[in-house]
Task: structure prediction
Amino acid sequence: MGIFDKAKDAAMANKDKLAEGLDKANEMAQDKLGDKLGDHADKLDMVTDKAKEALEGTEGEGEAAEEEAPAEEEAE
Result:
């Protein structure tokens, strides 16, 4: 198991905390930068939402890949 697999497993085990952290980072950036963000505030919200969607979309992805791998080996 490589370092990226370990990082992915840790992220999957803590999705709710990561999503909360994304929201806090977004809020902090908007508070600190305020008017300097201008039109980019909407983009920041969009990127935060996409990152949270990506966290939700990866659920079970690693498990499915592990289940498919032995089937491919047997077919050869």
